[in-house]
Description:
Helices cover 48% and strands 15% of the residues. The chain is elongated, with a radius of gyration of 19 Å.
Amino acid sequence: MGKKIAFLGLGRMGLPMARRLAAAGYELTVWNRSAGRAEGLTEAGSPAEAVQGADLVVTMLSDPAAVAEVAGRFTPSLAPGALWVDMSSVGPAAAADLRAQLPDGVGMVDAPVLGSVGLAARGELTVCVGGEDADLERAQPVLEHLGTVRRCGGPGAGAALKVVVISGIVASVTVVAEVLDVAQGLGVPQELALEVLANGPLAGPVARARNKESDFPVRLAAKDLGLAGGGPVLRAARQVLLADPAIADLDLASVVTALR
Length: 260
């Protein structure tokens, strides 16, 4: 298809996303911190090796520190004219810092996603993109293989929208967990409470709390709330998520049972 892509980060989300790009016919080279996750994809031995000759580089990593560390290993190897698409959830401040360190002639798009593993495998994510218009035009045909592309504005705008939306989702699921704890204390059956909640304004958070397909670790949800900063409600929700280390690697929905 005339475009060579490097994909760095083959975690829960990254691997199904990389598979979709390979299935679309792109020449794809992948890299992951832990070797052996490529599952038939062409795997490089280092980030610098992966991006050699790449027209477009995609990163899908866990947090700002991980992106900064990996970027330091590949940005010197980017050719002029290359485009970096960071799909990690790092927030607009970190995205600006990363952009400022790029070599001359290299563009960047921030493109974090909304959705979980099942949606990633089916190409049904929502991709929140921010960047210069010319860079967005170059990135969009690739990103459309991963889901619906939502253009948010200039550099950092995609990263900012992701923080806003995920903060609302995570805090709302935490609220569902706490009101079910109240229900237990008052002798209201959980299923009765959930049934009535699901028919009102909390229908979305209740559906997310009941979702068995999603795989969004509690520790990453807490990380995203940390990016938001925010007022006392978001800070309190983050403390709830951090309170039980036993659920750190479980899906966000596990906070519901952890509080009961």
